[in-house]
Amino acid sequence: MDVFIGEWGNLLLRWAHMIVGIGWIGTSFYFIALDYSLNQQERKSPGVFGTAWQVHGGGFYHVEKFTVAPPNLPPHLHWFKWEAYLTWVTGFGLLIIQYYFHASAYLIDPAVMPLEPWQAIAISIASLLVGWFIYDGLCRFFGDRTVPLAASVFLLILLAAVLYTKVFSGRGSFIHVGAFIGTIMAFNVFVTIIPGQRIMVGQLLRGEEPEAKYGKVAKQRSLHNNYLTLPVLLMMVSPHYPFLSAHPHAWMVVALILIVGGLFRHILNRIDIGEPWEKYGWAAPMAAFALICAIFVTAPRQMADTGPVISDSEVLAMTAKHCTMCHARRPTHESFKEPPKNVTLETLADLKRYSQLIMIQTVRNKAMPLGNQTHMTDEEREQLGRWLRAH
């Protein structure tokens, strides 16, 4: 019953994470597109930077954006913040339920680094916080110098990826790159954007002239969030695709994902502005090339087919040692009451039936056993692969 309740808790929290995440991403995409579609030539009210006419759901909307702030605040001001806050809270909740409570299975791989659960959790929390402070320091140091700041943030994320791939399991490392980026994005809202807007509101209420610098910084951080959204989305679903983290230098895959996602977001933003293709078309072949490189890097390598094929009894003994604690009709692993995805590996017929899955998940990607808790060796994986190919 405890596992059943835990599964429901995981599902509901994941559902909530998706709901608020969609809301946050939607507002980010909308407001960046709105900024880029503003018409500065239309006759405007005093203090207005630009306007936009929009149609949606059978209604017409006329939107105005002030250069700094309106002369007087309306009685009702809508704040877009809870989507960001709740996305981070639910995401961190999932990190706790999935990776902290089951650190030995999902977060730690003894073949990468033998850690105690508390050590892995401490590294996780500390790295997320330290990453934010370094990012914030880079933004303050470089200011509005876009190119060196972008390069520095790119390198920061790559350094985090190298750290995670040297410390955590494959799935744990990639989900932490996503959490690292997501923490930067959420803290941008919580620590920088909303406090700056509150200062401007306070200045208006006191009859003072609002300082434009707070709006400028908020716009910069919002744009960072916009460009990081597509890479972080892929990182968050990466545990379902272990081939992404199977490469010995998986940080290269992270670099390519950042490039592809950032360039594609840049193309969409330029389209929203209405720029001619000649000005941003260069990004399309670069994104395509980076994507091809990512596919090439993650492609399965041909394994050596030399050596004797182990017997049926030996392969059953191997799966009994490494697989059936989870993949049995009655699993003995504490995290499961039913075999994951209803895959059982107790008989020769089971092994033949799921041979392709076993070859991908266990032999090539080394994603199974979970967290390599049973310390399956590379030699055993090769032996299993030879048996599967022979049958």
Automatic annotation (TrEMBL):
Keywords: Membrane, Transmembrane, Transmembrane helix. Residues 372-391 are annotated as: Disordered. Pfam families: Urate_ox_N. The keyword ATP-binding does not apply. InterPro entries: Urate_ox_N. The keyword Calcium does not apply. The chain crosses the membrane at residues 12-34, 85-106, 118-135, 147-168, 174-196, 226-244, 250-268, 280-299. This is Cysteine desulfurase.
